[in-house]
């Protein structure tokens, strides 16, 4: 059985760029941005949990194949593709990935249809920081960063970088100060996250809510799923979006 059965396929186009989408549920909108290597079964299972909690989930399909298997070959293939794509920023500091503009447009569309205080934006792994880039748009009211890992932490400087331009970082800080908190989840010894949680704490202060688990594992809501992280995310989405 295809785990995407029951999800409605669609697409979204912005500035000449089109990506497919998968949608399911009712209630406030939450955009779930899949991790490498794509919309895998663990990602779908987590998205179903959000649906069951009373939300409309929209999953953009940015790379990889739907229902992709998670193994070394599919991960390596996805990494090669995103590293050469103009839509993503994986090895540069102080830049917002161009895909953020497309994701902001999707957030505006979903919010315009569903209403409410805004939509949730949840990224994971390489896409973890994309929720910050989306937060620049006022349609995003609940940004969630699951183990943000881009740009890839191959140097100490890149490991501290939030994947935002200076202008976008200033907007994120202002929005957080005005009452839009940011939730982040990670394993405390995950090298892929680098020092980003320290930087987010410095830049956002008490408006950065940390959910941390001990260990060196990585995927807090999928392959290495932690109930503590999932519960915190669902509570955060409800608090921010069901008002």
Descriptive key words:
single chain, 243 residues, alpha/beta, Rossmann fold, eight-stranded mixed sheet, 36% helix, globular
Question: What is the gist of this entry?
Answer:
The protein has eight helices and eight strands, in the order βββαβααβαβααβαβα. The protein is α/β, with parallel strands linked by helices and 243 residues long.
Topology, element by element:
Elements: E1 8-14, E2 17-25, E3 29-33, H1 41-52, E4 56-61, H2 72-84, H3 99-114, E5 119-124, H4 130-135, E6 140-146, H5 156-160, H6 166-177, E7 182-187, H7 196-204, E8 208-213, H8 227-241
Parallel strand pairs: 3-4, 3-5, 5-6, 6-7, 7-8
Antiparallel strand pairs: 1-2, 2-4
Query: What number is the mean pLDDT?
Result: 93
- The amount of beta strand, in percent, is 15-25%
Poorly predicted spans: none
| Structure classification | alpha/beta
The CATH first-level class comes to Alpha Beta
Q: Quote the CATH topology.
A: Rossmann fold
Q: Biggest sheet: strands, sense, closure?
A: 8 strands, mixed
User: Outline, from the CA principal axes?
Assistant: globular
Strand order of the largest sheet: 1-2-4-3-5-6-7-8
* Share of helix, binned: 25-40%
Count every helix, treating DSSP H or I runs of 4 or more residues as helices: 8
Rg, alpha carbons: 16 Å
Q: Give the count of structural domains.
A: 1
Order of helices and strands: EEEHEHHEHEHHEHEH
CATH superfamily heading: Alpha/Beta hydrolase fold, catalytic domain
N-to-C CA distance: 37 Å
| Total strand segments | 8
Named CATH architecture: 3-Layer(aba) Sandwich
